[in-house]
């Protein structure tokens, strides 16, 4: 059975504009096009679209998805099994975050008392939802190098990295009311700089300053960082800028 693009859009919830875009970039080109130029999607096309949507839900970028689907070794059944495991893990993480949120509400009402550790259960900093943005800002090589470093660590290593990052953020957040240029703050900011570079990045002073500015220029970063304390993102931007100045002197 062949379906017109409008029918596919209504069936899947994917907009006609998005389907046209997938066709233009060669990600999903329908098997049949009428003489009048109308796209007609087959069952196999719908299977491919389903794969694309699963990958998108898991945070893959369109270019990455295209490379995966075009790989001659691509196995749909294997991919579905892996996607299932990844989505189950994502659901588990969201369940933990929801529980943390519910506990935080009780804590705010004075009904329970949470430890600092419990306040951050469920957050996972090993997965970066802004990877494409990072690629545009700093290039594919730096991001790929970082991703490879994470992959080489394995699950246990990634968990340790996430815990180290949380510990550094908690330590710095506790200093956010101090002078950002003080020796104590700058020593800790130096630890943050070294931590980032250990992840496969190579942050020059200027790139480090730029990352700090991103914390306050992009409300998504600001919102996530300020979960560690009001004004934390702005404090980090200032402290990172000071470190960059001193490294360039």
From TrEMBL:
Gene3D superfamilies given in the database record: 1.10.1660.10, Antibiotic binding domain of TipA-like multidrug resistance regulators (1.10.490.50)
InterPro entries: DNA-bd_dom_put_sf (IPR009061), MerR-type_HTH_dom (IPR000551), MerR_fam (IPR047057), TipA-like_antibiotic-bd (IPR036244), TipAS_dom (IPR012925)
One MF term in the entry's GO annotations: DNA binding
The keyword Disulfide bond is annotated on this UniProt entry: no
Matches recorded under Pfam families: MerR_1, TipAS
Coiled coil (residue ranges): 77-118
Record-annotated HTH merR-type domain positions: 1-71
Highest taxon of source: Bacteria
Entry keyword Transcription regulation: yes
Keywords: Activator, Coiled coil, DNA-binding, Transcription, Transcription regulation
Protein's name in the database: DNA-binding transcriptional regulator, MerR family
């Amino acid at each position: 059975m062949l379906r017109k693009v409008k029918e596919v859009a209504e069936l899947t919830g994917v907009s006609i504009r998005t389907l046209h875009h997938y066709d233009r970039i060669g990600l999903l080109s329908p098997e049949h096009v009428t003489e009048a130029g109308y796209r007609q999607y087959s069952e196999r096309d719908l299977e491919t679209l389903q794969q694309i949507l699963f990958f998108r839900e898991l945070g893959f970028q369109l270019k990455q998805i295209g490379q995966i689907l075009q790989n001659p070794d691509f196995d749909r059944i294997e991919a579905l099994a892996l996607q299932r495991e990844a989505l189950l893990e994502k659901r588990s993480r969201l369940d933990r975050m929801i529980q943390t949120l519910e506990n935080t509400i009780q804590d705010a009402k004075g009904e329970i008392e949470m430890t600092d550790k419990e306040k951050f259960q469920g957050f996972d900093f090993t997965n970066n939802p802004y990877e494409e943005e990072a690629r545009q800002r700093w290039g594919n090589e730096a991001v790929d190098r970082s991703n490879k470093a994470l992959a080489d660590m394995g699950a246990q290593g990634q968990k340790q990295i996430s815990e180290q990052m949380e510990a550094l953020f908690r330590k710095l957040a506790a200093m956010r009311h101090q002078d950002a240029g003080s020796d104590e703050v700058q020593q800790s900011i130096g630890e943050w700089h070294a931590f980032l570079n250990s992840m496969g990045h190579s942050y020059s002073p200027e790139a480090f300053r730029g990352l700090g500015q991103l914390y306050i220029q992009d409300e998504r970063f600001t919102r996530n960082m300020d979960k560690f304390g009001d004004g934390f993102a702005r404090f980090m931007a200032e402290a990172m800028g000071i470190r960059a100045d001193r490294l360039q002197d």
